[in-house]
Amino acid sequence: MDSFAHVSSKSLIDLQSNLRKLSEKLNETYETLKNNEANLGESWLDDKFSEFEDDFKSSRELISELSEKYLNWANNYLPPYIELALKYEAAKAGLGR
């Protein structure tokens, strides 16, 4: 429990919220890049576009992976620690009475 001595439930909840927002923004970025690439592909039809598309695909996929990881942390990793911090804070408040 000492690990929570300097971590408040509020800071964990704020982190959770920020990770969700970041995940959402990364998803928006991914979709924008994907759509722009599709639009570009309609007018750029030589072999260089295929090369560009192949090179860029890994970067685009990395954005998607990061978004998923941040969302996973927010939804799966943090909740038990938030709950534990809330219990710790409640117990600590009860001792101070």
The name CATH uses for the topology is Helix Hairpins
What's the mean pLDDT score?
88
Low-confidence segments: none
Beta-strand residue fraction: under 5%
* Total DSSP E strands: 0
- Which shape, going by the Cα principal axes? rod-shaped
Structural class: mainly alpha
Order of helices and strands: HH
Q: Rg to the nearest angstrom? A: 21 Å
Largest sheet: none
- Indicate the percent of residues in helices: over 70%
- Total number of domains: 1
Q: Examine the secondary-structure arrangement and name the CATH architecture.
A: Orthogonal Bundle
CATH class: Mainly Alpha
Give the number of helices.
Answer: 2
Separation, N- and C-terminal Cα atoms = 20 Å
SSE inventory with pairings:
Layout: H1 9-43, H2 47-95
Helix pairs in contact: 1-2
What would you say this structure looks like, in words?
The chain is mainly alpha-helical and about 100 residues long. The chain has a single domain, classed as Orthogonal Bundle (Helix Hairpins), CATH 1.10.287. It is built from 2 helices and no strands. The longest helix has about 50 residues, at about 45-95. About 5% of the residues are buried.
Concise structural overview:
The chain is mainly α and 97 residues long. It has two helices and no strands.
What key attributes describe this structure?
97 residues; mainly alpha; Helix Hairpins; 87% helix; rod-shaped
